[in-house]
Amino acid sequence: MAVLAVDNLRKSYGGEEVVAGVSFGVAPGECFGLLGPNGAGKTTTLRLCLGLMDPDSGSIDLMSRTVPGEARPARVRVGVVPQMDNLDPDFTVEENLLVYGRYFGLRERTIRERIPRLLEFAGLAARAASRIQELSGGMKRRLTLARALINDPDLIFMDEPTTGLDPQARHLIWERLKQLLAQGKTIVLTTHFMEEAERLCARLAIMDHGRFITEGSPSDLIARHIEPHVVEVHGEGVAGWADGEAGPLASRVEKSGDTVFCYATDPAPLLANLARHELRYLHRPADLEDVFLKLTGRELRD
Predict the structure, then answer these.
(1) pLDDT digits over 107-155, tens only?
(2) Which of 185, 217, 249 is the C-terminal boundary of a domain?
(3) What is the model's pLDDT at position 300?
(4) DSSP secondary structure of the chain
(5) Segments forming the whole domain that contains residue 249
(6) Is 0.70 topped by the overall pTM?
């Protein structure tokens, strides 16, 4: 049975439909990813699922309870890592966990028993007495994750959990999320990092303009939407080469700034041609970012 089931969800602001008929389900123990450009409707979808705002229409079943009507008891079994850290600067690391645990009606003894394990999980065992201002960005993000686990949730919502982190901190959080999945936890994740989605998500949906435009496993989406080989070509004269020679050699050619992206099922003719030119190129397998850019475009979203 799905821990989260959404059917034909809709929400409008000022006459603009921000979530436009979204339907999906999340099975116990899986990581479901929600990808999309800025303004696609991802965060609004999460807030609707948590009962933090009311939908215009559609149905939401969260932990076998109807949302928004039964959102409060449903959230007892849910953890949330928000997009922006909202830790209390007046409290220490340990006190942040203690106060947050009280919101769930947990006994203080129970919370204090859980705190050392959560701090160890977050790599913050030596920081229990530290003030929030003394923590790095990566530490704050790991503390926010630990805080989301204080009620031992079955389902965890994560809204861009690694945005703004350096690669080391990002990889550490990925390892922690894999541990949670191995423990049988369920994760709903929004992210702008395609590598993050490929590493963690069993299934994902790409969302744009309030709608799901595709859904499936990362490998399925790559196989379904994109050619298997990508050749990125740079260098002086690349535009003339793309207009004159690339077309017949590739299934599809895209220009972005001073880079030409050539997509091909068989890259051999393309690579043979490039060997005769003084152009730099990178030959790589297609990935989820190629799918994302093909379906949502390369234009900047603010």
Answers:
(1) 999 999 999 999 999 999 999 999 999 999 999 999 999 999 999 999 9
(2) 217
(3) 64
(4) --SEEEEEEEEEETTEEEEEEEEEEE-TT-EEEEE--TTSSHHHHHHHHTTSS--SEEEEEETTEEETTTHHHHHTTEEEE-SS----TTSBHHHHHHHHHHHTT--HHHHHHHHHHHHHHTT-GGGTT-BGGGS-HHHHHHHHHHHHTTT--SEEEEESTTTT--HHHHHHHHHHHHHHHHTT-EEEEE-S-HHHHHHH-SEEEEEETTEEEEEE-HHHHHHHHS-SEEEEEESTTHHHHIIIIIHHHSSEEEEETTEEEEEES--HHHHHHHTTS--EEEEEE--HHHHHHHHH-SS---
(5) 227-285
(6) yes
